[in-house]
């Protein structure tokens, strides 16, 4: 509930500032945020959740029982979004752009969470889009080598050589 409202509020702020962003600038920032989320998802999953022992141990709970409702608390995800997106983009290109980039990143995070939940908790029609995502993600959980760290997209796995075909 929080992230859709926060994302809409950030876009609203960007469009209502004293020097507001134009719609095309806001749309570009939003698209950059979605792309940034896809890369952040890959990097966080590969290097944080499968990296340092403390974080890997927490993530191993998910691998041990993929249907368990294990996730990051709001304070951690929101803090990470503010420190990893809003603040640096604000310093680089301004507050309005930071709002739209962060809004896109937040909606990417929501989309990831929804997809990840669906592929672990619902029966999916064989051959459909979600079924193919589930098959690719299953290779991540049960494959012989670490691969397929992206849930939303396989693009970064392909770029960085960690893609395993379904």
Provide structural commentary.
Helices cover about 70% and strands about 0% of the residues. It is built from seven helices and no strands. Helix 2 (about 25-50) packs across helix 5. The chain is elongated, with a radius of gyration of 17 Å. About 25% of the residues are buried.
The stretches of 5 or more residues where confidence is low (pLDDT under 50) are none
Task: Give me the Rg, rounded.
Answer: 17 Å
The N- to C-terminal Cα distance equals 33 Å
The assigned structural class equals: mainly alpha
Estimate the mean pLDDT confidence: 85
**What about the largest sheet?**
none
Order of helices and strands: HHHHHHH
Which term fits the overall shape? elongated
% residues in beta strands: under 5%
How would you summarize this macromolecular structure in one to three sentences?
The protein is mostly helical and 166 residues long.
List keywords for this structure.
0% strand; mainly alpha; membrane; oxidoreductase; zinc; transmembrane; metal-binding
List the helices and strands and how they pair.
Blueprint (H helix, E strand, L loop, with lengths): L1 H15 L6 H26 L4 H12 L9 H20 L1 H27 L7 H14 L12 H6 L6
Helix pairs in contact: 1-5, 2-5, 4-5, 5-6
């Amino acid at each position: 509930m929080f992230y859709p409202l926060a994302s809409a509020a950030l876009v609203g702020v960007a469009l209502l500032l004293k020097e507001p962003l134009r719609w095309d600038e806001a749309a570009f920032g939003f698209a950059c945020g979605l792309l940034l989320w896809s890369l952040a998802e890959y990097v966080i999953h590969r290097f944080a959740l499968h990296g340092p022992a403390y974080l890997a141990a927490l993530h191993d709970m998910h691998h041990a029982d993929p249907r368990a409702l294990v996730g990051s608390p709001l304070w951690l995800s929101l803090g990470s979004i503010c420190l990893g997106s809003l603040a640096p983009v604000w310093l680089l290109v301004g507050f309005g752009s930071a709002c739209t980039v962060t809004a896109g990143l937040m909606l990417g995070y929501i989309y990831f969470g929804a997809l990840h939940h669906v592929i672990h908790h619902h029966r999916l029609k064989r051959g459909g889009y979600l079924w193919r995502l589930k098959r690719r993600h299953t290779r991540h959980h049960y494959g012989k080598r670490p691969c397929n760290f992206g849930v939303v997209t396989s693009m970064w796995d392909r770029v960085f050589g960690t893609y395993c075909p379904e």
